[in-house]
Amino acid sequence: MADESNNGLREQVWSAESASEAEVEWFFKYAKGKVPEQGDVAPALRNAAVAIRGWLDEVATFHVGALALRFTPRAWSPALEEEFGPWTSLVVRLECAAHPSERRRGVEELEAAAVGRLEQVIALGRDQRERERLLKHAGNHVRSAIRA
After folding, report:
1. Are 54 and 72 found together in one domain?
2. Domain ends where: 58, 76, 95?
3. What is the 3-state secondary structure (H, E, C) of 75-124?
4. Which residues face 38 on adjacent strands?
5. Under DSSP, is residue 41 helix (H, G, I), strand (E, B) or coil?
């Protein structure tokens, strides 16, 4: 009996997480991470964006950043896209964090350096475990953010 109860609860949690992920994806991909102005979209869509923005305002900035990186469309090199797919933006940022700079640098410069490192290891076929770790790390961040 307890197993059935646990399975039912687990399915409810997975269903809620799946719905939350779809809503967050819509917010960042189609609403561009913003609440549209009144009259720019159907009221139902604006209301949905208002609700999602409200939920995001309740979680740590760290989590919102992970979700934005995961779901905001951005073009990357074919090598990175092939290796990391929709997780590329978050993987690049994690690679930035793994190689701190000794001086203050802009995000663009840090990302360019991370992209260079990642493209090099992909081209040389090196560090497969590290690439897998980055991908898993990215997934864990998003999962934690959705649960938050």
Report:
1. no
2. 58
3. CCCHHHHHHHHHHHHHHHHHHHHHCCCCCCCCHHHHHHHHHHHHHHHHHH
4. 41
5. strand
In the block, tokens 């410069």 appear at 109
Whether residues 78 and 50 share a domain: the answer is no
Count of H-run helices and E-run strands, the chain: 7, 0
Scan for tokens 């896209």, then name that residue: 81
Give 55-93 pLDDT, tens digit per residue: 999 999 999 999 999 999 999 999 999 999 999 999 999
User: Rounded to whole angstroms, how far apart are CA atoms 135 and 26?
Assistant: 22
- Quick check: pTM over 0.90? no
List the one residue out of 98, 76, 100 whose CA is nearest residue 88: 76
Alpha-carbon gap, residue 148 to 60, rounded angstroms? 8
